[in-house]
Amino acid sequence: MTKTLAVSVWRGKEEGDFVTYEVPRRDNQTVLDVITHIQRNVDHTLSYRFACRVGMCGSCAMTVNGKAMWTCRTHVSQVADNGKLELAPLSNLPVVKDLVTDMRDFFDKWARGMGQFKGSRTRNDDFEKVQPDSKARKAADAGIECIGCGVCYGSCDVVSWRPDYLGPAALNRAWTLVNDQRDVQSAQRLSVVAGDAGCHSCHTQGTCTERCPKQLAPTASIAGLKRLLMTSSAGGK
């Protein structure tokens, strides 16, 4: 193991360049530890984003050696190539500065895909009972742990080709909601995701599933939406 790391970090906005820093290498060091060392000890002007440091918020996601991932749960030993790291902002999103991206497009598409739950009951009604072993509940459970980190979005080639594409996170969220028996907007939501920017634009490359830090499968959720739409168009339920 090398004693130091050569870390190339993107500096600037959309226009910029990589700057290389030398960072001490330590046991059990995460990529976020490396970035924090640079910002606190080498160059205080470096901008990056993080919050929880334990894989709960997803805000530290960026591109490490060409692949989108969380940095707080990624150890240097997993990604350092001969003691070298290249750190860049997430792809498919505007760069605010250095490693910070503007996440508005990502969350706007979440909203466009009707990613908000809407039930029919009020606080004065009894809770609706959902059978945990029902087919729909299991389908929803398979994708419900998404925390909106944007790793799948930054990894999706279709988003690169089609900026209007809703993206895997928004479609995964739509799938969980159409399988939630308490939600009252399923028909309208299916109409939205059936559009040109919806699930049918997915090329099923599977990069979103491969890189999801939560081990979710947006590819499967999108395929589920396609099947549901096909069944609906054929007059089924």
TrEMBL record:
Name of this chain's protein: Succinate dehydrogenase iron-sulfur subunit
EC numbers for this chain: 1.3.5.1
Catalytic activity, reaction form: a quinone + succinate = fumarate + a quinol
Keywords, alphabetical: 2Fe-2S, 3Fe-4S, 4Fe-4S, Iron, Iron-sulfur, Metal-binding, Oxidoreductase
Domain 2Fe-2S ferredoxin-type: 5-91
Gene3D superfamilies cross-referenced by the UniProt entry: 3.10.20.30, Alpha-helical ferredoxin
Names of required cofactors: [3Fe-4S] cluster; [4Fe-4S] cluster; [2Fe-2S] cluster
Domain of life: Bacteria
UniProt record similarity statement: Belongs to the succinate dehydrogenase/fumarate reductase iron-sulfur protein family.
Cofactor note: Binds 1 [3Fe-4S] cluster.
Keyword Iron-sulfur found: yes
Record GO terms (molecular function): 2 iron, 2 sulfur cluster binding; 3 iron, 4 sulfur cluster binding; 4 iron, 4 sulfur cluster binding; electron transfer activity; metal ion binding; succinate dehydrogenase (quinone) activity
Major enzyme class: oxidoreductase
Pathway: Carbohydrate metabolism; tricarboxylic acid cycle; fumarate from succinate (bacterial route): step 1/1
Organism of provenance: Parazoarcus communis
InterPro entries registered for this protein in UniProt: 2Fe-2S_ferredoxin-like_sf (IPR036010), 2Fe-2S_ferredoxin-type (IPR001041), 2Fe2S_fd_BS (IPR006058), 4Fe4S_Fe-S-bd (IPR017896), Beta-grasp_dom_sf (IPR012675), Helical_ferredxn (IPR009051), SDH/FRD_Iron-Sulfur (IPR050573), Succ_DH/fum_Rdtase_Fe-S (IPR004489)
GO terms, biological process: respiratory electron transport chain; tricarboxylic acid cycle
UniProt cross-references to PROSITE patterns, sorted A to Z: 2FE2S_FER_1, 2FE2S_FER_2, 4FE4S_FER_2
Coiled coil location: none
Residues in 4Fe-4S ferredoxin-type domain copies: 136-166
